Automatic annotation (TrEMBL):
One of its GO terms (cellular component) is cytoplasm. One of its GO terms (molecular function) is unfolded protein binding. The lineage of its organism: Bacteria, Pseudomonadati, Pseudomonadota, Gammaproteobacteria, Pseudomonadales. The keyword Chaperone applies. The keyword Protein transport applies. It is found in: Cytoplasm. This is Protein-export protein SecB. Pfam families: SecB.
Length: 158
């Protein structure tokens, strides 16, 4: 019994997940129709694009980058395009491949999203547009959909 407890304690000690740093990697804002766009009625169509990428930095340290692109159109005209690459450095140690994939593909982006949302709101307001107030995103569901898509693609190729 003591040996099992020691093994469980050793397992817990080697499993780590720690956020090391959050930062803006890239930031972009374009308002190609300003100042004319400010004279029009404001009822925009908002398009939101999300993507993530990750890479190993050193040993157990990983960089995860969440790219959020917002395009606002007023009629056929693009009012603005705002994009942020919100990044973080994470220490991930002792997780099996499935858990590590989930952490990098869903958990880390969900930690980064509130920072990206705040950065985009600030950027858009500085461009003299109303704040976006983007709704929360379920990265677990997006990750599950991506796994299903990859599995279906692999089965189709086989």
């Amino acid at each position: 019994m003591t040996e099992q407890n020691n093994n469980a304690a050793a397992q817990e000690e080697t499993t780590q997940f720690a956020l090391q740093r959050i930062y803006v990697k890239d930031l972009s804002f374009e308002a190609p129709k300003s100042p004319e766009i400010f004279r029009e009625d404001w009822s925009p169509n908002i398009e939101l694009d999300l993507s993530t990428s990750q890479r190993v930095l050193d040993g157990e340290f990983h960089e995860v980058v969440l790219t959020v692109t917002v395009t606002a159109k007023s009629g056929e005209d693009i009012a603005f395009i705002a994009e942020v690459q919100q990044a973080g450095i994470f220490l991930i140690q002792g997780l099996d491949a499935g858990s590590k994939g989930h952490a990098l593909g869903a958990f880390c982006p969900s930690l980064l999203f509130p920072y990206a949302r705040e950065t985009l709101d600030s950027l858009v307001v500085r461009g003299s547009f109303p704040a976006l107030m983007l709704a929360p995103v379920n990265f677990d569901a997006l990750y599950a959909q991506e796994l299903q898509r990859m599995q279906a693609s692999a089965e189709a190729q086989a």
